[in-house]
Structure formats: structure tokens, C-alpha cells
Design goal:
The complex is a heterodimer of chains A (81) and B (141). Chain A is 21% helix and 28% strand. The N and C termini of chain A lie far apart (37 Å). With 81 residues, chain A is an alpha+beta fold. A 5-stranded mixed sheet of chain A has the order 2-1-5-3-4. The longest helix of chain A is centred in the middle third of the chain and has 11 residues, at 30-40. In chain B, strands 3, 4, 6, 8, 9 and 10 form a 6-stranded antiparallel sheet that branches. The termini of chain B are far apart. Chain B has one domain: Aldehyde Oxidoreductase, domain 3, CATH 3.90.1170.40. The chains are: A alpha+beta (81), B alpha+beta (141). The interface between A and B is medium-sized, with 18 and 31 residues.
């Protein structure tokens, strides 16, 4: 399956892209995806915290399995207001 | 009513959107761009969002506040893009029959928005810019 990955704020500076498509095997979860992304963008691995994650526009846990998920977003701590 | 917009916020329009004739109170919160942060002089802010999700979360917060506090209507607008010192970055209008519920709901909305709506600010200061993420400043650009 293919998921659309989106990055925000400082994560964009670390990856150099706002979005990308990633192929995953069945049963893969958020943590598997992150591992793959860190291999692709080593600067992601150096952030020193686990970003919040959203699956199809809803906050999700890191143990979320991505079958049926179309879009995964990694979100640094928010700072609106 | 919630929205993200790049244009300046017209506060009176927001109040009018929230208020109905059964309301005796409108609580209004304005977040404004200040000229300093963590001891550093700030010249402006730039706001970015995950817009589809941010609008969804803002709607959810407004619905939750209406349910929890029994207020009539809530309007929330957040700016995106570059803002100068003194500009309104977020405005919340809560209309209610009585003031106590309006004030409590308004506080709940801004606190919850700052906690979970996917919007980020980048601080511009003399000689650079840096993302503000959560309470502190994560990285320099």
C-alpha cells in the first residue's frame, strides 16, 4: 500500500519536502513508517522527541496500523494562538 | 463558524457572526503579535497550518465548548501567513445568554486551541527566524 506522508514546521526543514509517497507492506504501523523515513532523511532521527502523528486528519497513536490509511502527518508540538 | 485566513481579522464581523438576539453576552479573546519572546526582540510572526486538520480540530473544539458550557455560538478565526507586531493572530467570540458561561467557554477554546490545533508560528527577529514549537524554540533557520 502507498501512504502520503506530510511534514510540518521544522520537520519540513529536516526533510526538505512537505510531502512524499511511501510504499509500505501490509500490517505496517506508524513506528515502521517513521523508521523508514528516518533512514531516508537522517535529520529526522535527530529531533530528540517523538512527533505527534495524525492519520487521515485525526490524531493517532504510534501503534496505529496503517492499512486503510491514506495520509499520515508528522506534527511537531503546535504553537498556534 | 471556524476558519483560517490570510487577510486581517475583522473583529466586529466576528462578533456579529457569533451573536444572536437571545444572547446577553459575547466574550471576545484576541491573540496579538507581541514584540518580544523569551528575551528576544521579535519583528514579526509567520503562521503555518495543516489546514484541513486545523479546521476540523477548531470545529471540534467549538462543538465541545458549546456542549460543555451551554453557550449559543462560537466563532474562531486564525490568521495564516506573515503578521506584523500588534496584528490579531487569533480571535474567538463566544455568545451566550449569560456572561459566566461565555467567559469560561472562551478560556476553554483558546487553551484547547493552543494545545491541539495543528498551527505553527515562525518567529522573525533581527538577523534570523526560528520555529516556535510547543513552549520553546526548537531550531534556528
Amino acid at each position: 500500500m502507498t501512504v502520503e506522508v506530510r511534514y510540518f514546521a521544522s520537520l519540513v526543514d529536516r526533510t526538505g519536502v512537505e510531502a512524499e509517497r511511501v510504499d509500505l507492506g501490509p500490517g505496517a504501523g506508524v513506528a515502521d513508517l517513521w523508521e523508514l523515513l528516518v533512514a531516508r532523511h537522517p535529520a529526522l532521527g535527530a529531533i530528540g522527541y517523538r512527533p505527534m502523528v495524525a492519520c487521515d486528519l485525526e490524531y493517532a497513536r504510534w501503534d496505529r496500523i496503517l492499512d486503510d490509511v491514506r495520509e499520515v502527518a508528522f506534527l511537531p508540538p503546535v504553537s498556534g494562538g | 463558524m471556524v476558519r483560517l485566513q490570510r487577510e486581517p481579522i475583522r473583529v466586529e464581523d466576528l462578533v456579529a457572526e457569533a451573536r444572536g438576539d437571545a444572547d446577553g453576552a459575547v466574550a471576545l479573546f484576541l491573540g496579538t503579535v507581541r514584540d518580544h519572546n523569551t528575551g528576544r526582540r521579535v519583528v514579526g510572526l509567520e503562521y503555518f497550518a495543516y489546514p484541513e486538520m486545523a479546521e476540523r480540530e477548531m470545529t471540534r473544539i467549538a462543538d465541545e465548548a458549546i456542549r460543555r458550557f451551554g453557550v449559543s455560538r462560537i466563532a474562531i478565526v486564525h490568521r495564516l501567513g506573515s503578521l506584523d507586531i500588534g496584528e490579531v493572530s487569533v480571535a474567538i467570540a463566544v455568545a451566550s445568554a449569560h456572561r459566566a458561561q461565555a467567559l469560561d467557554a472562551c478560556r476553554f477554546v483558546i487553551d484547547t486551541l493552543k494545545d491541539r490545533v495543528p498551527i505553527w508560528k515562525k518567529e522573525h527577529f533581527e538577523g534570523g527566524a526560528a520555529w516556535v514549537e510547543g513552549g520553546g524554540t526548537a531550531s534556528s533557520v
